[in-house]
């Protein structure tokens, strides 16, 4: 057995005992441990865990030590190691959760997996650094079987797009084992498996348990993210609503029959939390428009996807392939490949290009920021990052204060594949007093990005020491002139 989960020799049971019964067994048969609450939230106690040791020949092949209660095994391992696990402990994750094991590709893939999870409203239950370089374990809670299937499909498309195989991006089946939090690595140079926050900082066992508890409570307390689907004779899916008579028909509202959606100052481009589709939304997505209005309904549905928070074709593609409202474009794909994407991109580009008018005050501040960036000749990477932040967040007409900026946003704007690089650039902008964190990221709201306010350079200069207020300039550097001319001409 390797560090990454291997298939179990034990056949997967069709019926899994109730989790509460298994937890009672765990409570009585295992000694106290700091991992108790987290394990009880994410581990499937209906099957025993396993204690594994590194092979004596230095390979990744594991040597089985014993089987038993995962809590007892991790406690014994940490006791033998005087606080740090002396060997690995593996176990099965609860079958209602979805586990993704990223091996050597977390910087590239992890953000996309989390984006896909947000699309189907699957909260993050557990995130851990596996102990190997650029490797993490991600455990998510899909609210429905449909969400699980959709999420798995999006992760597979992301893997193919990034060029990784199924060993690097591994979606575990319920019968597979995963190295549990606190367990030692089976690789010669690996570290213990540690829970981490989204920014990569380590979490204590209590904080990791609190995150898992909040995520599971969110799923339990919320309605289903999408209607359950039943197959039809046409090979497509329809939402099944059990509270409505089967003789009821979908009746469009006047708003649905109105003219195509137009962009207003309530810009769909502006950042917002991804929201669940309502039943009325699914009525539109799963409807079969009559000939003559199919384009209007498809455009309306595309705007619905955008307003819900879907921003990328890799996420919109599933809806175009599976929702009958887009059937016109699905049929066109056979004769004209790319028709569906062209329609989506026309909506997305229109939304991204929309800008409500800036106020005179905001325009003046942004102008001073652009002028100030011309002096950043010794830090061009930070200057480019700040220009991207200005363009994508602060010049969109929605204010200069309390604007959310996620590390993944900066990765997208700069086409940077590394989360660490994007995070360092964002931290540098705060350190340079170009931005100020107005509302910091909180573990209690894992889907909310930190909020930033733009700093007026005039205010910074007025607060600085007098000896820094006046700088004797020599001949402007070429980069300074280039940036200044580009900014004034609107090329950047």
Distance between the termini: 53 Å
Total strands: 14
Instruction: Return the average pLDDT rounded to an integer.
Output: 77
Within the largest sheet, what's the order of strands? 7-4-6-5-9
Characterise this structure.
The protein has 492 residues and is of the alpha+beta class. 41% of the residues lie in helices and 12% in strands. It starts with 18 loop residues before the first helix and ends with a helix. β10 (228-231) and β11 form a beta hairpin. Residues 1-31, 224-272 and 465-480 have low confidence and may be disordered. The protein has a five-stranded antiparallel sheet. The chain has a four-stranded antiparallel sheet with strand order 2-1-3-8, with helices on one face. It has a three-stranded antiparallel sheet with strand order 12-14-13. The chain has 17 helices and 14 strands.
Write a brief caption for the model.
41% of the residues lie in helices and 12% in strands.
Q: What's the SSE blueprint?
A:
Blueprint: H1 19-29, H2 36-42, E1 49-54, E2 62-68, H3 70-80, E3 88-91, E4 98-102, H4 106-119, E5 124-129, E6 136-140, H5 145-162, E7 169-171, E8 178-179, E9 194-195, H6 205-221, E10 228-231, E11 237-240, H7 279-285, H8 294-308, H9 313-322, H10 327-335, H11 339-353, H12 360-373, H13 380-394, E12 403-404, H14 407-414, H15 419-431, E13 435-439, E14 451-454, H16 457-463, H17 478-489
Antiparallel strand pairs: 1-2, 1-3, 3-8, 4-6, 4-7, 5-6, 5-9, 10-11, 12-14, 13-14
Helix pairs in contact: 2-6, 4-5, 8-11, 9-11, 13-15, 14-15
């Amino acid at each position: 057995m390797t560090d990454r989960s291997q298939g179990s020799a034990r056949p997967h049971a069709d019926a899994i005992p109730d989790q509460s019964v298994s937890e009672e067994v765990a409570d009585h048969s295992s000694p106290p441990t700091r991992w108790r609450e987290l394990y009880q939230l994410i581990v499937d106690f209906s099957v025993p865990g396993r204690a594994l040791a590194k092979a004596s020949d230095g390979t990744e092949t594991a040597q089985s030590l014993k089987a038993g209660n995962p809590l007892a095994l991790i406690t014994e391992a940490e006791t033998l190691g005087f606080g740090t696990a002396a060997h690995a402990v593996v176990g099965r994750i609860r079958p209602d959760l979805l586990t993704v094991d990223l091996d050597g590709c977390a910087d590239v893939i992890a953000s996309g997996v989390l984006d896909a999870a947000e699309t189907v409203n699957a909260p993050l239950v557990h995130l851990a650094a596996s102990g190997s370089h650029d490797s993490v374990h991600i455990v998510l809670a899909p609210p429905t079987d449909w969400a699980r299937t959709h999420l798995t499909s999006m992760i597979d498309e992301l893997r193919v797009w990034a060029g990784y195989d199924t060993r690097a991006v591994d979606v575990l089946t319920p019968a597979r084992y995963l190295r549990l939090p606190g367990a030692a690595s089976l690789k010669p140079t690996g570290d213990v498996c540690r829970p981490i926050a989204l920014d990569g900082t380590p979490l204590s066992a209590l904080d990791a348990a609190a995150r898992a508890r909040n995520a599971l409570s969110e799923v339990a307390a919320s309605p289903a993210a999408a209607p359950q689907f039943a197959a039809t004779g046409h090979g497509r899916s329809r939402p099944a609503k059990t509270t409505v008579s089967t003789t009821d028909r979908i009746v469009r509202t006047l708003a649905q029959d109105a003219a195509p959606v137009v962009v207003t100052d309530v810009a769909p481009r502006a950042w917002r939390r991804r929201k669940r589709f309502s039943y009325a939304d699914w009525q539109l997505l799963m409807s079969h428009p009559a000939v003559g209005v199919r384009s209007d309904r498809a455009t309306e549905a595309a705007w619905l996807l955008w307003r819900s928070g879907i921003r990328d074709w890799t996420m919109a593609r599933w809806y175009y392939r599976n929702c009958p409202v887009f059937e016109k474009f699905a049929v066109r794909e056979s004769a004209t490949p790319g028709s569906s994407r062209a329609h989506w991109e026309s909506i997305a580009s229109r939304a991204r290009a929309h800008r409500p008018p800036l106020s005179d005050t905001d325009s003046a501040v942004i102008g001073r920021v652009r002028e100030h960036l011309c002096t950043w000749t010794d830090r061009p990477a930070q200057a480019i990052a700040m220009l991207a932040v200005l363009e994508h967040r602060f010049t969109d007409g929605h204010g200069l204060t309390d604007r959310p900026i996620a590390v993944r946003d900066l990765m997208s704007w700069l086409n940077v594949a590394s989360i660490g690089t994007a995070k360092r650039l964002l931290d540098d902008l705060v350190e340079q007093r170009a931005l100020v964190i107005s509302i910091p990221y909180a573990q209690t709201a894992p889907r909310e990005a930190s909020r930033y306010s733009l700093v007026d350079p005039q205010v910074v200069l007025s607060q600085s020491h007098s000896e820094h207020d006046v700088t004797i300039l020599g001949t402007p550097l070429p980069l300074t002139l280039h940036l200044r001319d580009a900014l004034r001409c609107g090329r950047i």
